[in-house]
Amino acid sequence: MRVLLISYMDNGQQHRLIAKAMRDFLGWDAKSIVNKESYLGFKTDWTVKDDLEEATEFAKTADMMIFQDMLLDIPNMGMVELAGHRNTIINGTGTLMRNSISINVLLNMQMDGWAVVPPISDETIASKLFPAPFENVIVPIEEINAITKGIKRNEVVTVCHAPTKSVLKGTDLVESILRPLDEEGVIKYLPIKGMAWNEALRAKATAHITIDSLGKEFEGEQKFPAAYGAGNALEGLVLGHIVIGRVSPWCYALHPDLPIVSTWGREEETAKIIKENITDGAEPLIRSSELGRYEFKKYQLEWVKTHFSAENQVQKWKHYIDWVMHR
To answer: What is the pTM of this model?
Structure first.
């Protein structure tokens, strides 16, 4: 089985992780190619800049092509001409699929018979398209553990936040709460910005709390929720953090035991929620025994393994691909 995964910019390195899982656990010949690399420095199998000819030859004999968010027509590859209802999947990973124009186009494609996999944890997309019967996120648990091995957490409660899209993330609100606490010496505020992924992980490993998206507007749409499928939140769980985000009830309908603290419906209490998780959550963890800290992290980690490990997720992809090819 040969699978080619095509990305404009590999969002959260998901296509690289799917290809690797297919090789490792299914024995398939799977490769990912990225049109444009970012400052995050994610690994990839191929890039358009360096490997176009090899990838083009691979595409000609691929049994399945998986495109990120849209049918991406890379010049001189001819992949769109090769694409069809039984050998192509459009895999949604976030921003490019979220705007209303893309959603309408993709919905029409679904009605026409194309296989589209929206990120099921993101209600702004999955509530408007026909979702596939599985979650399309892989968390690279072993890589995260290897990169952060031996790093000790700070002795003072450290709260990290990645202001990559400040409106979406609610960064102004986050910093209005955290910076005064930092100045008072109650916490250390750790903004994660402009770092390669490896570097960001090492910085986050020193922290105790991850604050993910708290924003309420995105591209004019009110009440934009955080999706637990976002890499930052799940990485926080793997690191044993208390994770806080404005997570929609949609996500808890999928996972009632989702171990993330949500401010949804309690936005006016956001400062109180964060402070309570500092004084009643992170501080007691710092004071607890090594065993207590281990058990807390183990619970978070096991939850992520159950739902988002490469070994489990690739089996879902296998069954879905089989359906696409033989429907």
So the answer is: 0.91
